[in-house]
Amino acid sequence: MKTMTCKQLGGACDMEFRAGTFEEIAEMSKNHGMDMFQKGDRPHIEAMNEMRERMNDPHAMQGWMETKRKEFEALPEDK
Q1: Structural domain includes residue 79
Q2: Residue 30 within any structural domain of the chain
């Protein structure tokens, strides 16, 4: 298991997510973002808007995801 924060994953807070794979942690982050969006949390909505802009360029989004995947893989295992 490895830990990343919402901020590390492009979000707006220090909430921690723990998962065994990058795909799992990305899904947790996505679900958290959607929850914060539904609650009307401005910082998360702004972070989601930035992500949406990144998604307009498939190469930029792919590069961003690869960078985050490498960041996840480089993390030490949780104790």
Answers
A1: no
A2: yes
